């Protein structure tokens, strides 16, 4: 299952990049989203590459389907790993993956951030796969819907941080 988003920012590319990679912005964003125990476990920055790993605890953003409720925790530990690379056209591409503790699914995606001094656009795609017999499609559908809500809420918070 795949979800895609296009997020427009009324701020320049440099400002959006700073919000994406600045420790204080990252932690503030996680607090504003209501995530628990957020911490940056890795942040390596160079002129052309950034590696970011954030751990946090999250609650579902959408109702958990009945068949999945027995497996759902109130809070789930999540690790998000992002590798960003500057492209020759000055845009930035990212490969990312999420690990949700205790959930037998793979969540991975790509981002492409483009822009200039006045505005920026981030194109996000996320693929969710779960190979558990009988429940795999339900798990993937739930995770894709939940992730979509979280991605859009995160976009709103980042917009407010760069405004």
Write up what this structure looks like.
- The protein is of the alpha+beta class and 163 residues long.
- The protein has a single domain (2-162), classed as Alpha-D-Glucose-1,6-Bisphosphate, Chain A, domain 4, CATH 3.30.530.
- Helix content is 28%, strand content 42%.
- The protein has three helices and seven strands.
- It has helices spanning 13-21, 23-32, 136-162; strands spanning 2-9, 36-45, 49-58, 76-86, 92-100, 106-115, 120-129.
- A seven-stranded antiparallel sheet has the order 1-7-6-5-4-3-2, covered by helices on one side.
- Helix 1 (13-21) packs across helix 3 and helix 2 (23-32) packs across helix 3.
- The longest helix has 27 residues, at 136-162.
- It is globular, with a radius of gyration of 16 Å.
- The termini are far apart.
- The mean pLDDT is 94.
């Amino acid at each position: 299952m795949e979800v895609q988003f296009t997020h427009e920012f009324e701020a320049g590319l440099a400002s959006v990049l700073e919000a994406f990679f600045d420790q204080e912005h990252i932690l503030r964003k996680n607090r504003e989203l209501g995530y628990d125990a957020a911490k940056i476990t890795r942040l390596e920055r160079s002129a052309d590459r950034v590696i970011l790993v954030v751990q946090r605890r999250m609650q579902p953003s959408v109702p958990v389907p009945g068949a999945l409720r027995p497996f759902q925790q109130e809070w789930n530990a999540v690790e998000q790993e992002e590798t960003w690379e500057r492209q020759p056209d000055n845009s930035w591409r990212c490969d990312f993956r999420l690990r949700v503790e205790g959930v037998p699914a793979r969540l991975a995606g790509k981002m492409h951030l483009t822009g200039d001094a006045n505005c920026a656009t981030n194109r996000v795609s996320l693929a969710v796969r779960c190979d558990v017999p009988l429940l795999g499609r339900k798990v993937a559908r739930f995770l894709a819907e939940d992730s979509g809500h979280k991605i859009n809420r995160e976009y709103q918070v980042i917009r407010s941080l760069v405004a």
